[in-house]
Design a protein that fits this description.
- The protein contains 16 helices and 17 strands.
- Helix 2 packs parallel to helix 3 and helix 2 crosses helix 14.
- The N and C termini lie far apart (61 Å).
- The protein binds zinc ion.
Length: 493
């Protein structure tokens, strides 16, 4: 795919939209235009005069907002889309870390990254942190980068390797050489970080990996507060040893105590909340309901398509729901009633845009203001009964809109999706690559292991309680059979 420089990009004007610029006051601008010249936002206002030859995009009836930013996504796992729908962290760790992760070849990393990167821009995610912890060799890493270069969007390669300890793989000369080259080549479209977890060993062996990051000038992103895996000791060790910095992104940060949140807040770091993940994998309760007490900056992520949706509409929606559910539950336990929720639709839209930019220290992203990079999403679907009335634009984005409503996506001044169709993307090539990966892995595992991996055993204690209000056996045989087919024999009471 030929790369376009900023100089090759003309002017584009998006007309007559409800614009959510995500500026500080969280303005809502009605019947407003956004003018893009080159790769920057040149003007935001009503009835803009535009340069001759500017491409016009009619966004009437729609919403224009900044491109969304996902601060934690394991793109390589997109090749296994949906496979782990019924997993918890236990199956995930066994499948990827212990048993099958090392079977992934460089071309499999490429396939997952390519499809995941395309999926992101299709859903209006214009910047993605590729939390790439399947990089067993630098050939795997080169394949990951090749895929990111093939898709016209912004990425951060967060280099990781779950098959070795971080102090081992960061010590490899070829890995350091690769990282240094990526750092030197880093630009607005592809940055680099290190990705590894801190397990709480009092001798803090991760120190060596943090020192490599410091030597190379690379931020670190880490899975923190993951029940059974990472805990308060990891945060304390990072903080006490001077490696908790404002650039550090703490993913999940769910099962942590007050001391850890205070350390994160004091060091200026941020939390990446993956609510769909935390809710079903078991890292801990999605932490937004308590993180706000410490004024820790929040961004949003979707984690992995091996389980969940690769779009931030789902992430915003489920984050609102989890925060409000917890707030209600805590109040009900205390015999109280919540009459107005703390977390608002505008907050999650901000976390999905400006919050991501803040986490990545990218002041040029995350809002539609003059001089910012031209990353923009038009949400508009004239065929959809859900597209009107448009009364509460933040509420519309958070609870009504979805991937299919993404009409146009512009990244760095380039239209990558227009009128609901991706532009210049070879989806057939991504399909072939992923099919090859799936065929290969399925062959390596064998059909029985492949099927078993997808279907964890049901817990045995799934008994239905005796019900004192049941005086007669009114249930028909067919109802009982239906229950048994869903819940197993133990449900046959
Ligand atoms: Zn993750």
């Amino acid at each position: 795919m030929a790369e376009l420089g900023a100089a090759d990009k003309g002017a584009i004007v998006v007309r007559h939209a409800t614009v959510l610029p995500m500026d500080r006051p969280r303005s809502v601008l009605l019947d407003t235009d956004v003018l893009i010249v080159g790769n920057e936002v040149a003007a935001v206002g009503a009835g803009l005069e535009v340069p001759a030859g500017a491409e016009e995009i009619d966004a009437s009836g729609g919403i224009v907002m900044p491109g969304m930013i996902d601060t934690h996504r394991h793109l390589w796992q997109t090749a296994m889309r949906g496979y782990g729908a019924d997993w918890t962290l236990t199956q995930y760790f066994v499948w990827y870390y212990l048993e099958h992760g090392r079977k992934f070849r460089p071309e499999d990393i490429y396939a997952g990254n390519l499809l995941g990167a395309i999926e992101a821009i299709d859903a209006g995610v214009t910047t993605t942190v590729d939390w790439s912890h399947g990089l067993q060799t630098v050939d795997h890493a080169a394949a990951a980068v090749d895929a990111l270069h093939a898709v016209p969007a912004r990425f951060v390669l967060a280099y990781g390797n779950i098959q070795a300890a971080p102090w081992e793989w960061t010590a490899q000369p070829e890995v350091r050489r690769f990282l240094r080259e990526r750092k030197d080549a880093a630009d607005d479209l592809l940055g680099v970080q290190l990705a590894f977890d801190v397990l709480g060993d009092p001798s803090f062996p991760e120190r060596a990996a943090f020192e490599v990051a410091r030597e190379l000038g690379l931020p670190v992103t880490t899975h923190a507060g993951v029940w059974g895996a990472t805990n308060d000791d990891g945060i304390r060790l990072m903080h006490e040893n001077g490696f908790a910095t404002p650039e550090t992104v703490y993913v999940h940060a769910a099962t942590l105590d007050t001391d850890s949140y205070l350390r994160i807040a004091a060091s200026g770091g941020s939390v990446s909340v993956s609510t769909e993940s935390e809710q079903s994998a078991g890292q801990g309760y999605p932490p937004t309901w308590q993180v706000r007490r410490f004024d820790i900056p929040v961004s949003i992520s979707m984690d992995t398509s091996v389980w969940w949706s690769g779009d931030l509409f789902s992430a915003m929606r489920t984050t609102l729901g989890a925060d409000r559910a917890r707030e209600h539950l805590e109040a009900h336990v205390a015999g109280e009633t919540i009459t107005a929720p703390h977390l608002r639709a505008e907050h999650v839209v901000e976390w999905a845009t400006r919050g991501g930019a803040q986490a990545l220290k990218r002041d040029d992203l995350g809002s539609l203001e003059v001089g910012k990079k031209a990353d923009l999403v038009v949400i508009k679907n004239d065929q959809s009964p859900v597209s009107f009335p448009l009364l509460n634009p933040y509420g519309h984005v958070a609870f009504q809109a979805q991937r299919g409503d993404v009409h146009t996506v512009i990244i760095d001044g380039l239209v990558v999706k227009r009128d609901h169709r991706l532009v210049g993307i070879d989806l057939a090539a991504a399909r072939t690559a992923v099919e090859n990966t799936v065929d290969y892995l399925r062959g390596e595992l064998g059909e029985d292991v492949w099927q078993a991996g997808m279907h964890p055993e049901l817990p045995a204690d799934d008994k239905v309680l005796d019900n004192p209000y049941t005086y007669t056996d009114y249930r028909s045989a067919s109802t009982r059979e239906a229950r048994e087919s869903i819940f197993g024999e133990s449900a046959a009471t």
